[in-house]
Write a structure and sequence with these properties.
single chain, mainly alpha, 7 helices
C-alpha cells in the first residue's frame, strides 16, 4: 500500500480536472497563472498518465507483492498488512516504483493545475461530457478509499482509471482554442 496509495493519489490529481468545469465559473482575478504553454502542459500530463498506466501494469507483473497473491491480497486497504518476504530483484523493482510514483505524483499535480488554469482562461474549450468522464474517474478512485478496497482491487482500478484518464487527456488536446 505504501506505493499503491500514492499512485492512486497521482491519478486523483489528474482526475481533479473534473472540478474546474464547475469551479471556473467563479472567476478569481488574483489566482496564480502558469508560465508555460497549454500544449506543453497537456503533452506532459498525457505522459504522466501513460507513465502511471505503466506503473500499475508493473504492479500487476509482481502479483506476490502488489497485485493480489499472498496474504495481503484479500486484506482491506490499510497500512501494516503482512506480506511475504521478497527477493532482491523484487526489492529493487519496488524501490524503482517508489521513485517513479513519487515523481509522477509531483508532475501530475503540476500538470493538472496548469491544464485547469488553461481551461479557466479559455485556452481549452472542452465539451461538458469530457468533464463528466474525469468525474467518473474521481468517483472510482474515491470508491477505492471509501470501500477500503483490497490491494488487488486497488491495482485493477488503478489500471482501468489510468487508461481512461490517458484517453480523456488526449481528448482535451483536441479542444485547444485557436
Amino acid at each position: 500500500m505504501a506505493v499503491v496509495l500514492p499512485a492512486i493519489a497521482a491519478l486523483a490529481a489528474v482526475a481533479s480536472i473534473a472540478t474546474i468545469h464547475w469551479s471556473a465559473q467563479d472567476e478569481i482575478e488574483d489566482r496564480a497563472k502558469p508560465k508555460r504553454r497549454v500544449g506543453a502542459a497537456l503533452r506532459d500530463l498525457e505522459t504522466c498518465c501513460i507513465g502511471l498506466s505503466e506503473v500499475f501494469k508493473r504492479f500487476q507483473k509482481i502479483p506476490r507483492v502488489f497485485a493480489g497473491d499472498g496474504p495481503s491480497s484479500t486484506a482491506a486497504l490499510k497500512f501494516g498488512t503482512h506480506t511475504p518476504r521478497i527477493n532482491a530483484d523484487d526489492a529493487r523493482l519496488y524501490q524503482k516504483l517508489v521513485d517513479d510514483v513519487a515523481s509522477m505524483l509531483v508532475l501530475a499535480n503540476q500538470n493538472a493545475f496548469d491544464v485547469m488554469s488553461a481551461i479557466e482562461d479559455g485556452e481549452v474549450v472542452a465539451p461538458e461530457d469530457l468533464f463528466y468522464g474525469f468525474a467518473d474517474c474521481q468517483e472510482a478512485l474515491n470508491k477505492v478509499i471509501v470501500d477500503r478496497a483490497t490491494l488487488r482491487a486497488s491495482v485493477e482500478i488503478g489500471v482501468e482509471t489510468s487508461q481512461k484518464l490517458t484517453e480523456y487527456v488526449r481528448e482535451l488536446k483536441k479542444h485547444l482554442a485557436v
